[in-house]
Amino acid sequence: MYIRRQPEDIFRVANLAVAKKFFDNLIDTTIKDIAERFSVSEKQVHFWKRRLIEEGPKIFSRLKPGRKKEDISSLNDNERLLVYEVINNLLIEEKRGAGRNQKFTAEFKEKLLKERDRLKEDNALTYEDFYRLMGISPRSTRSWSCELRQEGPEGLKDHSRAPKNRPKKLSQELIDKIVGYGKAWKRHRGRINLTEFGVSFRWKYRNLLAKYCKTNLSDKTIARYLKEAGLYWEKEEKPGGKRGAFRYYFPGAQALIDTTVVTILGLKVRLIGIMDAFSRDILHQEAFLSENAEKVIKSIKVSLRKAGRLGIKVLSLVSDHGRSYKAKRIWGYLRGEKIYRIFSPPYWPQGKAALERYFRTLKEGITRRSKIVLLIKGIILWIKERIALTCLNLVLIGFNSEYEKKKGIDGKSPLDRLDQEVSPVYKEAVGKIFKEEERESQLKAELISSICKEFGFGMKIERVKRYLKVYRKEIIEKGAGVLRRKLVVEELKPNNRWYYLSKVIENMEKERKEAEIHRAKETIYQEKEKSKAQEERRKIEEEKLWYETHPEEALEEAIEWRLVMSDNTFARRHYDNMITANLTKILMRHSSFTAGLRVNKICMRIQEKERLENNRVIKGGSLPSGNKLRTDKEMLVNLIRQSYGQCKGSIPAFQGLRAVI
Description:
It is a single chain. The chain is mainly alpha-helical. The protein has 6 domains: 7-62; 72-156, no CATH class; 172-228; 255-368, 2-Layer Sandwich (Nucleotidyltransferase, domain 5); 424-511, no CATH class; 550-660, no CATH class. Helices cover 65% and strands 5% of the residues. A 5-stranded mixed sheet has the order 3-2-1-4-5, sandwiched between helices. Strand 1 and strand 2 (267-276) form a beta hairpin. The longest helix is centred in the C-terminal third of the chain and has 56 residues, at 494-549.
């Protein structure tokens, strides 16, 4: 049952609770006894006591504690009208100040909270009704109230660094490129490393990104579209499956190498095997008493030779983390052969499962069969291979001695065809050019050798020649002259001489390239100016041709310009001549019977003209007003009739009839 409390009753209960706190040695009653006496809970008594201590007796005269919440429909008409008016003013201010889709300002938030509390205190409007009428979230207003209470008005300001609106969506072309490149990456490389993927994507599609002004496209934006396409996750499980963590699509894409221990005749030996992962062919296998980097390199060399004979180019080599496979010598050898080295994950034999299965089959076969039989079979195959190779080489020698060169369709080889089609003058000129280039190269080499002997650089001559041969002969001579003048005034050590010469030559080459770039820019500028002048002349010619072939449009434009520029004497004379010339062209297309009617139509159109119609004329000015416009129209009509009178005698009769016939 709800009991409505008056402020006086609440003050009495709170006063007794405070007296109990300060005079507990004089008062025998407890807080529990006070709560039971006034039919309230102990929690409510403690709350009233705390409010009385903090704010004093005035708190009970201002507040209306215990008032029952009322629905807005239970309010009278005047109160309800007042609530709607306040809400309406807030909504109008919110739309005018911040906009419909904008965030609220700190001032509006503070005012909204004040109005909410005032409406609750004066009109008993619940927070739920207030939120419903305002159309805002209760959670937001509660957070605003907490921030205002803790930090003041500064806490209501927007401190978020997130974008004010939703992030702008990229163009569909860029999204398609990101998704397509992500699929290709997953297909060829597996899991996407976001940093590596972002760098690669920005470099590959740099021109497309520059087109859309997205050259600094962030990895976070790229990841957003990859996640939407299901190509990227923050955490991925370790790839599973029988094929392991590596894939191969053609012979030579990956070769597998591993070592196993085989016991033969009581002796344990290390068997190194190399297999092509795609075709499962054994490229090489060899047994050693001990395993080291030298033995591994030997096996790799033999396997590469066999792969070359089979037409296979090995691109990568997969091994485990064995000590011999991680040696620097093997790393350097594979790098020299341009073979990519891959380590399978530790304790992950599935990375080279095919070779592991082969070793298991090999051990089972050796165990089941007699080793003597296998040894004899191996010797027979070795002898057979050597005999077959020797016989084939002898056959090739005999075949080459009797081989006749096959000609082309026309019975000529490319060399014979070139000798016949190329003129002797052309061949002589090409020969002279080659001889001159060879002579210049020889002179440059002699010059470099003489400079090395003269200055005695403190380093290998081959290194000096390799550095200087990329520069021109004239620059090398100038650099040597500068070094000679430097040595006259200052003594330099051999190493310092070389550093000085290289720096001088580098600066000269840089100046030469800058001069070439400057000349190229000047040439480009001159060509652009020429092209602009040609374009202007072309436009002028096209405009002249247009005015000659379109006299009706030219006449209309000239009439409007004449009305606009009537105050300019030069312009008036120019457009009068244009009107006369174009009118003559138009009338010459008519017969003497229709020319007068055509002139009357033109004059009538001039009299009725009240606004400009040509866009170029509209941009250039406006029609005069009042009597000035009427006077100019009369002058134009008189000019047209006068021009018609002058050319009337030259207009042929039956012009239209002859055209029909």
